[in-house]
Amino acid sequence: MNNSIYHLTQKGERKNIEFKEHLLKSHHLKKERKQQLASQMKYRLERGDGEAIYFLGVNDDGQLLGLDDDELAESIDVLDKIAQEVNSQILEVETQGADNGEVAKVIIARIHKLRPKHLLIGVAGHVDHGKSTLVGTLTTGSLDNGSGRTRIFLDVQKHEIERGLSADLSFAVYGFKNNTTQRIKNPLNKREKSRLVENCDKLISFVDTVGHEPWLRTTIRGIVGQKLNYGLLVIAADQGPTQITREHLGIILAMELPVLVVITKIDMVTPEKLEKVRAEIFDLLKLVGRIPFMVKNNDDADFLAENMNQHLVPVINASPVTGEGLEILDRLLYQLKIPSQEMESQQPFMMYIDKIYSVLGVGTVVSGTIRQGTVNKGDKLILGPFASGDFLPVNVKTIEMHHFRKETADVGEVVGISISGVEMDEIRRGMIICHHDFNPNAFREFEAEVAILVHPTTIRMGYECITHIETIAETTCIQPINQEYLSAGDTGLVKIKFKYRPCVIRKGQKLILREGKTKGVGTITRLVR
Ligand SMILES: Nc1nc2c(ncn2[C@@H]2O[C@H](COP(=O)(O)OP(=O)(O)OP(=O)(O)O)[C@@H](O)[C@H]2O)c(=O)[nH]1
Ligand SMILES: [Mg+2]
């Protein structure tokens, strides 16, 4: 038996702990009863300094009776409604088996309405070069041991831990308050994460991507689909830039993002080797028209943060094992400018859906980075396009950012939105959720200006590949417009058709063409039909 629930219930109701056997919508949400429960919750929250713990399926004597799935879902739902009455939210639900079904421990916390400034950075680089480790160390402050200690905060799936490879995108966050860094001991602890989001005045979120070549589509999703502010390229000092490093840099550049470079694992190499790798990286950056700048101390960091633009690329030596370079990196990240999103914030809400999942007691959740506008709890939105090109109405039930429940979320924030109105298995990555005023149109065909990177053969009529736009990754047919064919190094206009379903796209959006490796990058120039 899980000790945490058993121990906590053994000593009876006390301080901020409350037992509830079964909460019923028909009974407990009736006006008077609801008021009683709300004031009781308020009391428990006060006793717990803003946090209360409710046990469901547990009677007044602390006996673990259990509830069946429907009963439990209903009880959590009722608790959620009561929490809303007292300006609070459900933070965490933990369940365990009991005699008749399951008991649940539900943590409820007060909501604070605060909008910290938020920066989103995509982290890319060759497999094993130390992306997850760097992000793990920056966000927790705990040093790595050189054999994977801090990456476990990012690589949470069992097969990722066993193989030591990241296989999906992870989101990590740390922040600053009054000029000092705020980190979390355990990023897997939702309460700690939520408190961080609540307390900081500037937040840095990282999208940790994957370096292993077969998962390039996931890396592309991390860079193309997230409305990033910066791209951070991690290069290990012992290996230097590789073909994959170049490929990832190419994707970041295609998105026209400002770039930061961290040379990591500097504890593993001699100064001579480090200098050689630095020179290689500088050459690589100059080759693509960027100006590299070695950031050696706090003054350099201040200068770079002030003058950072599309062309300047700060390069920082670091080691999450010795801690070298991390303070300078903190300082640079803290001061990096957040582009003004005032205009985008005023536009109608729209988000490309990146992930779809189902959460106990919450229902269907879609997540992604808000492209424009703001979303509020209770909003009536539309979601689509479905194969027919139609959109369906949905309601926003709750909004979460790094497990912190919010009343409203703004452009640039990475959020999970729980919705009702559409079944989970009808929703696909690459669909959008938006306000009616966004007035979305789904297209099957468009034109783009593309540059072909590596391609052994030629791109001519009938050529098929995956086209990535935002979180869209669809099979497409490509046809050159003014030439018969395009080969490596060529640029030109092409017509692109989605093979299976229409998508919401816009003029000016960046795209990546892929068939195995990246084949081309480009920009949408015209929407056809
Ligand atoms: N000595 C030393 N080892 C490091 C350093 N940074 C990372 N490592 C080790 O390098 C290994 C790979 O690090 P990861 O962070 O998993 O690399 P990754 O880039 O996230 O790899 P993928 O996600 O699989 O692409 C781990 O065993 C780390 O402990 C460093 O600065 N010094
Ligand atoms: Mg990793």
Structural account:
By secondary structure, the protein is an alpha+beta fold. 26% of the residues lie in helices and 35% in strands. Helix 11 (298-307) runs parallel beside helix 12. The longest helix is centred in the first third of the chain and has 17 residues, at 31-47. The mean pLDDT is 90. Residues 131-132, 151, 154-155, 166, 208 line the site of magnesium ion.
Keyphrases for this structure?
binds magnesium ion, globular, 529 residues, binds guanosine-5'-triphosphate, 30 strands, 35% strand, six-stranded antiparallel barrel
DSSP helical segment count: 13
Low-confidence stretches at least 5 residues in length (pLDDT < 50)?
A: none
Indicate the mean pLDDT.
Answer: 90
Strand residue content: 25-35%
Q: What Rg is obtained from the alpha carbons, in whole angstroms?
A: 25 Å
Small molecules (ligands, ions, cofactors) in the structure: guanosine-5'-triphosphate, magnesium ion
Distance between the termini: 59 Å
Oligomer state equals single chain
Main beta-sheet annotation: 8 strands, mixed
Total beta strand runs:
30
Reading side by side through the largest sheet, how are the strands ordered? 7-6-8-5-9-10-12-11
Question: What is the overall shape?
Answer: globular
Helicity, as a percent range: 25-40%
User: Which structural class is indicated by helix and strand composition?
Assistant: alpha+beta
Provide a brief overview of the structure:
By secondary structure, the chain is of the alpha+beta class.
List the helices and strands and how they pair.
Elements: H1 3-10, E1 17-20, H2 25-28, H3 31-47, E2 51-56, H4 69-85, E3 88-98, E4 101-110, E5 117-124, H5 131-140, H6 158-163, E6 170-177, E7 180-182, H7 190-199, E8 202-208, H8 216-224, E9 230-236, H9 243-254, E10 259-264, H10 271-287, E11 291-294, H11 298-307, E12 312-317, H12 326-335, H13 342-346, E13 350-352, E14 355-359, E15 363-372, E16 375-376, E17 380-384, E18 392-401, E19 404-406, E20 408-409, E21 414-420, E22 432-434, E23 442-443, E24 445-452, E25 463-469, E26 472-480, E27 491-498, E28 503-504, E29 510-515, E30 517-527
The structure holds guanosine-5'-triphosphate and magnesium ion.
Guanosine-5'-triphosphate (GTP) binds next to helix 5.
